[in-house]
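Q: I'm building a small set of examples for a reading group on sequence design. Run inverse folding on the following structure and report the sequence directly after it, with nothing in between.
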């Protein structure tokens, strides 16, 4: 093993174990697959309970409520609540829309169990994390086929009132039975060439279809059959390679709730904030492994990151739209490989949010384990192609013939990266005058210089930004991201320069000041200069004029909402129903009206938003305006070209960036205000470009500056105000990560760099509050 938990003279412990550790222990007779699964069940029973408190008007206790059965016992929710006025100042003067205070209610899927709705906060020192929504344990892995309806076939016939489909379901072995079958067939001599993931225990973001567990995308939706007729193609590959399908990881339902397309429906009650609400209406909200009052992520694959970090599973598959796997990996100090769009399939057999960005990510505690799983997901005949996901029609040359794990064997020795040139994306490290961002940006800059350059010997080359003070010891990029955008926007996305802000004024006023009066949008004319727009573009592309001062990789990320979510949910539901129809069963939850009629949502804002989604009938955005689908495809092309220009002009091997300058925020608290909010758009570059990214834990900070709520001047809403008061954090602190990025087909280089950094730095610290359990 790689941590203090290692002891080859004792029984195998799952805490911090790698795939190699597991396989060595099995071969040495120190453990079995069944014993490993039992350890994970015990950890889930100890640590996987509710970790949030309701925020109520009066702060009075609520009645004891039980939730769904998990790890062989029903969940028990906290009865204590937090008085809203302790979080929201001047609440007695608030005059805005009604607030949605916290409450316990019965779920739509199973009225016999309850869940938290409305406002919540994280419970201090909760001792619980709430990261796994469903465990693959007989009797509790489905609502439709729960309890005796999931009786083992050897235990006699099902009860007379059991749904007919349960006869099929109960023939699916649960995680313990999967493990027992492996032990019986292979003992301590498994064929690791055929089954490289033998005995590896996985969780899956609930968006992935698993035929032996409830699969609803995190939603509290009352399906006729709440498990699918077949696995997602990646789940199927993992089964074939010896993996144990253990649990569904809690997720922000429907991959981040998908936004509100607008329409005639509005919420009856509002929430002051949803920061840290990586919530599932069915399963609740997770907490951060290093501080249970804080967000598990800014990304919907929260349960994947938390379950890996807390050693509730060995590995997890998540999904990334624009932050969904990187956020959980960053906030919980685990490693991530996010292959390029769409090397790994996602949208075939999964509930997605934005099919133009959705992709699968692999989360483990080490990069080597992530790479081993990436290799194992490749089918010997079909490769990584998924016939149900059209995005997997990628050039085969973009997939390494050598595999991936072979490139993660670096020892991280002194000067082992000498000769490599790594570009630093300084735009990811801007504090923008925010004390909240200061600790991490300072620590990350020091980490990059001391480890990548001073120890590993790479040559660093930094981009420039007006808000970044150049490091005199580091080479400056000859063509940086600003100059690359100036050269490429006129060719690949000239529409960008004509965009208007919400107030109807130009996003790029320097452009408007340089051109003759021109219609930017129907009825919107701007321009006070002398150049024709097309001549301006010619001058800009050849850098003969100064680019707009705010043309940068943050401002170009803004996209209008597309209607793809309306398309994707409809397609997913109809495909799932068709799969069951082919087997002689009927699923009537097949479209948006049925989904809304048979669902509950933890916030009324989502109820109204989903009614608006239901009423959309056109895949296009309103005519005459920006088109969401078009923008996604054009932006991907633009950003890939920008990356390549920066790489080629500066002779770089890869890029490195800070995932986010902000630490995990307080659950239910306000977002950090000010310019830093806009600068976060930079973090969407990799997802919008669909480029391979590898994330590695890089350290911890021990202070945080958490924003506070204030009542607005008109008393109709709560706003965020910056806080100059430092909060001291318990050791090890709150984590941050570095992200290494590469062009498709160059993953060997980026994995070599990331592996060298990970091995040399060893920054991950296991979460102290969720350590080893006593061995019976």
């Amino acid at each position: 093993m790689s941590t203090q938990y290692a002891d080859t003279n004792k029984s195998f412990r799952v805490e911090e174990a790698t795939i190699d550790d597991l396989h060595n222990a099995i071969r040495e007779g120190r453990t079995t697959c069944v014993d490993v699964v039992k350890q994970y069940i015990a950890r889930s029973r100890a640590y996987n309970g509710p970790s949030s408190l309701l925020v109520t008007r009066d702060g009075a206790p609520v009645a004891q409520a039980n939730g769904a059965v998990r790890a062989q016992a029903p969940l028990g929710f906290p009865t204590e609540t937090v008085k809203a006025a302790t979080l929201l100042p001047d609440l007695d003067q608030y005059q805005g829309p009604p607030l949605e205070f916290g409450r316990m209610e019965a779920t739509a899927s199973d009225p016999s169990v309850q869940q938290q709705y409305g406002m919540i906060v994280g419970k201090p020192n909760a001792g619980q994390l709430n990261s796994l929504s469903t465990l693959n344990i007989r009797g509790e892995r489905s609502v439709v086929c729960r309890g005796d309806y999931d009786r083992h076939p050897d235990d006699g016939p099902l009860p007379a009132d059991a749904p007919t489909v349960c006869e099929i379901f109960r023939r699916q072995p649960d995680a313990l039975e999967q493990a027992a079958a492996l032990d019986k067939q292979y003992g301590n001599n498994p064929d690791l060439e055929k089954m490289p993931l033998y005995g590896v225990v996985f969780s899956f973001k609930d968006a992935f279809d698993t035929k032996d567990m409830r699969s609803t995308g995190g939603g509290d939706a009352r399906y006729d059959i709440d498990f699918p007729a077949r696995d997602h193609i990646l789940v199927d590959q993992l089964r074939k390679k010896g993996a144990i399908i253990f649990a569904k990881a809690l997720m922000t339902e429907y991959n981040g709730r998908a936004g509100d397309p607008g329409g005639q429906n509005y919420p009856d009650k509002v929430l002051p904030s949803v920061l840290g609400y990586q919530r599932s209406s069915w399963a609740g909200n997770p907490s951060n492994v290093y501080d249970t009052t804080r967000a598990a992520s800014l990304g919907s694959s929260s349960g994947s990151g938390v379950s890996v970090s807390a050693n509730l599973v060995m590995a997890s598959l998540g999904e990334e739209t624009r932050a969904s796997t990187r956020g959980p990996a960053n906030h919980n100090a685990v490693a991530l490989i996010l292959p390029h769009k769409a090397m790994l399939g996602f949208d075939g057999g999964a509930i997605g949010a934005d099919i133009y960005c959705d992709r699968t990510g692999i989360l483990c505690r080490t990069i080597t384990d992530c790479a081993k799983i990436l290799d194992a997901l490749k089918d010997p005949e079909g490769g990584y192609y998924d016939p149900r996901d059209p995005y997997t029609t990628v050039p085969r040359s973009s997939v390494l013939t050598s595999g991936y794990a072979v490139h993660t064997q670096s020892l991280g020795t002194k000067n082992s990266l000498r000769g490599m040139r790594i570009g630093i994306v300084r735009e990811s490290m801007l504090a923008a005058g925010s004390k909240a961002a200061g600790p991490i940006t300072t620590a990350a800059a020091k980490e990059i210089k001391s480890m990548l350059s001073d120890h590993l010997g790479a040559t660093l080359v930094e981009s420039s930004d007006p808000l970044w003070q150049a490091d005199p010891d580091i080479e400056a990029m000859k063509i940086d991201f600003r100059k690359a955008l100036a050269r490429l926007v006129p060719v690949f996305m000239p529409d960008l320069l004509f965009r208007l802000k919400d107030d109807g004024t130009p996003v790029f006023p320097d452009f408007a000041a340089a051109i003759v009066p021109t219609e930017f949008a129907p009825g919107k004319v701007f321009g006070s200069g002398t150049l024709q727009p097309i001549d301006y573009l010619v001058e800009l592309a050849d850098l003969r004029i100064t680019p707009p001062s705010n043309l940068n990789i943050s401002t170009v990320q803004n996209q209008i909402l597309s209607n793809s979510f309306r398309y994707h949910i409809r397609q997913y539901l109809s495909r799932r129903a068709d799969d069951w129809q082919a087997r002689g069963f009927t699923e009537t939850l097949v479209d948006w009206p049925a989904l809304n009629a048979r669902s509950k949502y933890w916030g009324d804002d989502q109820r109204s938003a989903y009614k608006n989604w239901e009423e959309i009938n056109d895949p296009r955005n309103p005519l005459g305006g920006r088109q969401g689908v078009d923008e996604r495809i054009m932006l991907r092309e633009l950003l890939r070209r920008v990356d390549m220009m920066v790489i080629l002009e500066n002779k770089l091997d890869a890029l490195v960036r800070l995932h986010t300058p902000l630490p995990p925020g307080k659950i239910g608290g306000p977002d950090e205000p000010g310019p830093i909010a806009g600068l976060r758009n930079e973090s969407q570059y990799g997802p919008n470009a669909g480029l391979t990214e590898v994330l590695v834990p890089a350290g911890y900070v021990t202070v945080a500056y958490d924003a506070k709520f204030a009542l607005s001047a008109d008393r109709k809403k709560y706003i965020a105000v910056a806080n100059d008061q430092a909060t001291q954090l318990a050791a090890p602190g709150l984590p941050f990560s570095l992200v290494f990025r590469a062009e498709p087909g160059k993953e060997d280089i980026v994995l070599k760099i990331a592996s060298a950094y990970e091995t040399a730095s060893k920054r991950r610290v296991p979460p102290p509050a969720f350590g080893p359990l006593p061995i019976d």
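The first strand starts at residue 52 and ends at 56.
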